[in-house]
Amino acid sequence: MIKRDKAMKSKTKGSVYLVGAGPGDPELITVKGLKLIQKADVIIYDFLIDQQLLSFAKKDAELICVGKSPSHHTMKQEDINKLLVEKSNEYKMVVRLKNGDPFIFGRGGEEAIYLSEQDIPCEVVSGVSSAIAVPASAGIPLTHRDYASSVAIITGHRREDGEVKFVNADTLVFLMAVANLERIIKKLLEEGKGPETPCILITRGTFPDQKVVQGNLGNILHASKKEEVKPPAVLVVGEVVNLRDSLIRTTPDIHCKFEADFPSHGRGNGSTLSEKL
């Protein structure tokens, strides 16, 4: 937890904004999400968000990390829910900053329901999901008229080690796939997928040091161990994976991006990306 001088407390109940920070690259946050970060009195954020985003917060904003990295939770979900209510009674604007999109395996639904039950005003600000952005950054379209007309987004991390359940779709995208990779592959093979089915693991997606391990269901587990793939990672399964070679050849500057003007000397200093927009 990072404590700062508290902003002026509101006498009335504040609002909570569930904000998606995007897939990793801080430049992929939405304009609305960035503006809310700048205005927030308190930001309750997950471990996986890029710390550069916090440099846009007000100097007196309270910053609270609640963890939520794979296999390491600083705070239980029930306690996070209570913290959101507590801070909404202290401050006018509370931002709950989550990696990706709040409603795509981000437990945003649980938090929104809890806030509603407590009569706390809540707004969801969508973010760019890693389920879409990470494959794209690796040169993989999730749909293609010749190869895939359906997509399923599946969590690789089940509650209380529950069974990994799949649906029938041309392209399967697994989030948080590393810890249960062996179980996922075994289940796919049992469900009828062939060992030659193309797949790819992507770590550090959308960042300059993004790493990919490409193969098929028959060899991806061995390859991931050899390359020492660490979570978080996105697993994509389906014929669209084979399109990567063509797309990478035609887009050699796939990671080319403009430079955002992030504050370099503490929070709130200098011009910001949202001001330019």
Detailed description of the structure:
There is one protein chain. This protein is an alpha/beta fold and 277 residues long. It folds into two domains: 15-128, Tetrapyrrole methylase, N-terminal domain (Cobalt-precorrin-4 Transmethylase, domain 1), CATH 3.40.1010; 131-248, 2-Layer Sandwich (Methyltransferase, Cobalt-precorrin-4 Transmethylase, Domain 2), CATH 3.30.950. It contains eight helices and ten strands. The chain has helices at 31-39, 77-88, 108-117, 130-137, 181-190, 220-226, 244-250, 273-276; strands at 15-20, 42-45, 62-65, 93-98, 122-125, 151-155, 171-175, 198-203, 211-216, 233-237. Helix 2 packs across helix 3 (108-117). The longest helix is centred in the first third of the chain and has 12 residues, at 77-88. The relative contact order is 0.16. The model is unreliable at 4-10 and 250-260 (pLDDT under 50).
Could you report the average pLDDT, rounded to the nearest whole number? 86
Helix content: 10-25%
Based on CA inertia axes, which overall geometry fits? elongated
Largest sheet: 5 strands, parallel
What is the total domain count?
2
What's the CATH architecture of the largest domain?
Answer: 2-Layer Sandwich
Strand-residue proportion: 15-25%
Based on DSSP secondary structure assignment, what is the total number of beta strands?
Answer: 10
Which strand order do you get reading across the main beta sheet?
Answer: 3-2-4-1-5
Extract low-pLDDT stretches.
4-10, 250-260
CATH class descriptor name of the largest domain: Alpha Beta
- Class computed from helices, strands and strand pairing: alpha/beta
Question: How many helical stretches?
Answer: 8
- Helices and strands, in order, run as EHEEHEHEHEEHEEHEHH
Note the gap between the termini.
31 Å
What is the third-level CATH name, the topology of the largest domain?
Answer: Methyltransferase, Cobalt-precorrin-4 Transmethylase, Domain 2
Q: Give the CATH superfamily of the largest domain.
A: Tetrapyrrole methylase, C-terminal domain
Give me the Rg, rounded. Answer: 20 Å
